[in-house]
Design brief:
2 domains; globular; eleven-stranded mixed β-sheet; alpha+beta; Aminopeptidase; 344 residues
Length: 344
């Protein structure tokens, strides 16, 4: 059976610039194995943006097998993942902690009843000016997508893991289960694109990017509305993800945009595990006490969040790497619009 979306080995391979793909044989999930700066050790993190696996009940066996290979593991679980988080928590040395709530749309309900009036109005206006099409061959639009994403990087000053290279996007646009939609303006130009990964009964919102005119014309509303209409015959749920930042308190625009489509939320969990306790203690020796996990990476968090006391989350997750991260060899990566050009 072909594994699609975030479960596909192709998707994990697309992130190889940030860590070596590490397949978990029992559960069917994958991690990214990274060099620990200043040592010969490695640790592991779940892929951006979520850790997914086929058999959650087998994950404890995989974590046990990592002893001696990696120092620690940190993951953010699929919101449609573990059916028994409390039972799974015991497999992680530091347990599972509730992290962000992800907005989800139940496609068995009409979008007219789940979306707020603001979103319905903006969708109507955008659809009157833009045409939305599903792409039969998304890879044909690689250059277009990279151009749009370059605009996103410039506008939001993205850096780190979400500054995917052109090579990474070339793989992501060919991952099984991808559903890609494009908004076109009256001049035939691309105003925006959105990417979804379909796995079983769920389509996960992956990425979206827009042109300058796409922002003006509110292409995001047209794209999300048409996506929901087209995907209704394929999946039961749309998983929109969460907002920006560590707390996701609903005050940021991204959270408001996602929660304007639905009132339904599903939790994700932060899993923290020390696979090699002795080596973990050695790497932490001499460092200030911290709630950050893994503690030996805490100085990186201080850089990532500008040294603001108390503003960093309790773990460096794949989502948090949007601000600062290191590649598989422990070298800092600071993304700019040139990051997309570098791999051409």
């Amino acid at each position: 059976m072909v594994r699609t979306g975030y479960l596909s080995p192709d998707y994990t391979a697309s992130l190889a610039g940030f860590g070596r793909p590490l397949v978990l044989a029992c559960s069917g999930g994958s991690l990214l194995e990274r060099a620990v700066p200043g040592s010969a050790d490695t640790d592991a993190m779940g892929p951006y943006p979520l850790f997914c696996c086929v058999d959650w009940s087998a994950l404890p066996a995989d974590l046990a097998r990592l002893a001696g290979r990696v120092v620690s593991v940190v993951v953010v679980t699929d919101p449609f993942g573990p059916g028994d988080p409390l039972g799974l928590s015991g497999a992680f040395s530091h347990g599972l902690t509730r992290y962000k709530d992800h907005a989800v749309i139940d496609l068995e309900r009409p979008l007219e009843t789940s979306a707020c009036s603001h979103h319905r109005r903006n969708a109507r206006k955008a659809l009157a000016r833009l045409m939305v099409e599903e792409l039969d061959e998304p890879r044909r639009y690689l250059e277009t997508w990279c151009g749009l994403y370059g605009e996103l990087i410039r506008r939001h000053r993205l850096s780190g893991m979400t500054c995917f290279s052109r090579e990474s996007f070339a793989v992501q646009l060919a991952v099984p289960g991808l559903a890609a939609f494009r908004a076109v303006d009256d001049r035939g130009e691309t105003a925006g694109m959105v990417l979804w990964y379909c796995q079983g009964e769920v389509a996960y919102y992956h990425l979206a990017a827009y042109s300058e005119r796409g922002y003006v014309e509110k292409a995001s509303y047209a794209l999300f509305w048409r996506s929901a209409e087209r995907l209704r015959d394929r999946v039961r749920w749309l998983s929109l993800g969460a907002g920006a930042g560590a707390t996701c308190d609903g005050s940021d625009g991204l959270t408001r945009f996602k929660r304007g489509w639905t009132s339904l939320l599903r939790p994700t969990y932060l899993g923290r595990h020390v696979a090699s306790p002795r080596r973990y203690a050695e790497l932490c020796r001499g460092r200030p006490a911290s709630d950050f996990f893994p503690a030996y990476r805490a100085p990186v968090a201080a850089v990532a969040w500008g040294g603001r006391s108390g503003s960093a989350p309790a773990a460096m997750t794949s989502n948090d790497w949007a601000r600062h991260c290191e590649d598989a060899e422990g070298k800092p990566i600071h993304g700019t619009r040139d990051h997309l050009r570098a791999a051409r």
